[in-house]
Amino acid sequence: LYPTGALRLRLAPRLHPAAPPTKDRSPRHVTACVKPSGTFRGAQLYLERGGRLELLLPEAPRPRARCFSWPPREKGALMVTGSPRSDRLCLAVAGACRPCNDTEILMAICTSDFVIRGSTRSVSNDAELQESIIGVSAARIHRQKFPLFQAGGRLAGSIRTPLRCGVKPGPGTFLFTGWLHFGEAWLSCAPRYRDFQRIYQGARRSSQNPCEFPLD
């Protein structure tokens, strides 16, 4: 249920040389199918194609086959990962689906993969994946290990959280922190920015802040 990292399966079938392509004949594709067993739990299966991951099998899927194709000259791969609701998220907030306490907030700004100050634009729910997707407008990017939030007129991006947490859109400015899971941002702590300022200033006065963080 709780692997570290992931299992990557390279798909390289031995094929007979394809006939020379002609104007009227498109290149041949390789097709493969996967079907989950009835006990498939605690993991998700992705197809790695063109540098992106496409979800093939969510956790506890319906017992039906999923097929996919790729050109024989490309490198196909499958990626098996632990479900995002595993203990990594629980440890990030020291217990799933509850607000972080002051100590957890201070540690989150020092150790998270991303720290984004911004506001909530929208919240959409994916019942199949059991995920909520939070649309975020970023006022300032304090840290991001990968370009999650891209400039396109304004800084915007999305952050995921388990559906069972019941996230709702709300007004105000927040400090979104969290970690990356195969290119997707997952939420750990998201205090209101004014509450974070109060917590950080109090910790700094007592020399208990674990790292320096710019306030403005």
TrEMBL record:
Molecular function GO terms recorded: hormone activity
InterPro entries reported for this sequence: Meteorin-like (IPR051998)
Biological-process GO terms, alphabetical: glial cell differentiation; positive regulation of axonogenesis
Entry GO terms, CC: extracellular space
Compartments, record wording: Secreted
UniProtKB keywords: Disulfide bond, Secreted, Signal
Family in the record: Belongs to the meteorin family.
Protein name in the entry: METRN protein
